[in-house]
Amino acid sequence: MLKANRELTESSAHPHRWKPIPALGLFDRHVWWSTLLVLAAIAVLVRLGFWQLARLEQRRTRNAQIAHQLALPPVALTPGLSLPGNLAQLKNRRVVAQGEFDFSQQVALLYQNRQGAPGLHLIAPLVLADGSAAVLVDRGWIPQAAAAPDQWPQFDEPGPAPITGFIQLSQTLPAAEEPRTPHTPRIEWYRVDIPAIQAQLPYKLLPVYILQSAAGQNSDDLPYRIEPEFDLSDGPHLGYAGQWFLFALILGVGYVYYLVKAARAMVGKPREER
Question: Domain of 36?
Answer without folding.
Answer: 27-75+232-269
